[in-house]
Write a structure and sequence with these properties.
8 strands; about 300 residues; eight-stranded mixed sheet; alpha/beta
Length: about 300
């Protein structure tokens, strides 16, 4: 990331101001396979954190099969495909959700968006350099699997939550994703969220099975961040295109999402960028570069 061209004495003030900024907590929500409820988790976690008073943005990172806007009954005028094509800025795409949640929608049914190169994914990420918003948390709902976009967004986040169910296919694909993130891309810590479980024992078994095989073959720490129970009220909320925490706040799944949000709110904030493409910490802050240059002058 380049520093604005300012005289040396101004640049020193700029660096001091940048050091005092509060970084944004960035969380990637992903899964090894589709159908495990990943987007529902992303939406309800984001709404829960927004309703708790946090300034939250939800980025739909499933670039070719986006459905965050659909799950919340929203109709975007622009989306990330329009940003890449130069039709609008990232700011133009923003939607407002429950609890003043900000949403960046992606496109659905555009194959070229699902097949972006690593360089194009990086370019999309750097489009955020023109977005100046006061945020506490950015949640990225990635695609499922091990596509380039999943890896890029996961690398660019401080925390990665892998959503997994108890069925063998979900477990196998979750491990495959964890292996790629760890062995090929150096991700050392991953949060496991057990979804659609019947009780806490099932959640612990899912985590233990993944932890045991990962501990044997990989150099990664897997933490059980929480679990979301199977809940008919959640399915009703999905059919009505609403977040369950908003529509049925007293349901067991809504209570689980609120508990998850409280736990994540207790995580420590990052002290600086981890490297790679972790642009969020440097750029998504409450004071933009233009303000800094003006103040440092």
């Amino acid at each position: 990331m380049q520093t604005p061209n300012v005289p040396t004495h101004q640049a020193s003030g700029l660096l001091m101001l940048k050091a005092a900024m509060k970084p944004v907590q960035v969380i990637a929500v992903t899964s090894g396979k589709g159908g495990v409820g990943k987007t529902s988790v992303s939406v309800n976690l984001a709404v829960s954190m927004a309703m708790s008073g946090k300034k939250v943005m939800l980025l739909d990172g499933d670039l070719g099969l986006a459905n965050v806007d659909v799950m919340l009954g929203l109709q975007p005028k622009y989306n990330l495909a329009d940003v890449i094509e130069g039709k609008c800025t990232l700011e133009d795409t923003l939607l407002k959700g429950p609890g003043d949640l900000l949403i960046v929608p992606a496109s659905s049914g555009k194959r070229q968006m699902a097949e972006l190169t690593q360089a194009q994914n990086a370019g999309l990420i750097h489009a955020f350099s023109d977005l100046h918003r006061s945020l506490d948390v950015l949640i990225v709902d990635t695609a499922a699997g091990i596509a380039d976009s999943v890896i890029t967004f996961s690398q660019a986040s401080q925390e990665v939550i892998v959503v997994v169910c108890g069925d063998p296919a979900s477990m196998t694909d979750a491990y495959a994703l964890i292996k790629v993130l760890n062995r090929d891309h150096g991700v050392k810590r991953i949060q496991i969220l057990a979804n659609k479980v019947h009780n806490a024992i099932e959640a612990r078994e899912i985590h233990e099975n993944l932890r045991r095989v990962s501990e044997r073959f990989l150099d990664v720490t897997l933490n059980l961040v929480g679990s979301i129970p199977h809940d008919e009220w959640l399915q009703r909320a999905v059919r009505r295109q609403k977040a369950v925490v908003d529509l049925y706040p007293n349901s067991i799944s809504a209570e689980a999402f609120k508990t998850l949000a409280k736990k994540i709110n207790q995580w420590g904030m990052p002290k600086g960028a981890r490297g790679n493409l972790e642009f969020f910490v440097e750029r998504l802050v409450s004071v933009d570069h233009r303000t800094l240059v003006s103040t440092a002058a």
